[in-house]
Each structure stands twice: as C-alpha cells, then as structure tokens.
Design a protein that fits this description.
Mean pLDDT: 75
Number of helices: 3
Distance between the termini: 8 Å
Strand content: under 5%
Order of helices and strands: HHH
Helix content: over 70%
Number of domains: 1
Largest sheet: none
Number of strands: 0
C-alpha cells in the first residue's frame, strides 16, 4: 500500500528532524534566514503526516478489519501531536524529542504491520 509507505516515511522525517535539525542549524546558520527549529516546521510536518497516516490506517482497517494496527497508529499520532502542542516550553527539549521519536516509531510500526497484512492477504484494494 503506497499510502502506508508514504506515511511511515513521514514518521521517519519527524525523527530525522529531531535528531539532525540542531546540527543542520549550526552548519547552515549563516545561509538560512529560516530556522529549521521553527515551530512552523513542526506544525508543517505534523499537518502533512497526520492526514496521510489516518488515510492509510483507515484504508487498511477497512480492507483488513484489523483494529490493532489502526489503534496503534492513532496512539503514535497522538504522541506526535502532543509533542507539538505541549512543545519545548512545557515538556522540555528532551521531552519533546522523546514523544516525537516514540510516536513516530509507533506510527511507522503500525504502517509496516498494515502493509504486511496487505501483502499477506493480497487484497486488490490496497494495490490500486
């Protein structure tokens, strides 16, 4: 299922952003007027990842009737959303990174399981 692959990739973008944005800022500070640590970046990534993930998880649930992947993915998305909403000011930088990382891995895991179920069932709806 292409949407699962895209959604899992977007989850990993969140993790990469968390770990590498500080290094990129240090190396590119003189070249960029827009900070990669801006809250706008966090909102943009989240606003892209959530709808695609929800769509992929819903399609998987509809086709495979497996509640667990859907609920696991929702939990991961909630953690990612909480990280952005609470922000560094409320839970600290390490708390924000922790919630984002755990949430992203949970979402990626749910999409991986959803994709595996699709391949195992060889359903046509997922491959169109």
């Amino acid at each position: 299922m292409r949407s699962d692959k895209l959604a899992a990739s977007l989850s990993m973008v969140c993790v990469i952003h968390c770990f590498f944005a500080p290094s990129l800022i240090i190396f590119s500070y003189s070249f960029l007027s827009f900070s990669l640590e801006s809250e706008l970046v966090h909102y943009l990534i989240l606003c892209t990842a959530v709808p695609i993930s929800l769509l992929a998880l819903f399609i998987g649930f509809k086709n495979h009737q497996t509640y667990s992947f859907f609920y696991i993915g929702i939990i991961g998305l909630i953690l990612m959303t909480l990280a952005v909403i609470l922000g560094e000011g409320n839970i600290g930088e390490s708390g924000e990174h922790f919630l984002t990382t755990i949430g992203s891995f949970i979402v990626a895991f749910a999409h991986f399981q959803n994709h595996r179920a699709c391949k195992n069932l060889e359903c046509d709806d997922c491959h169109n």
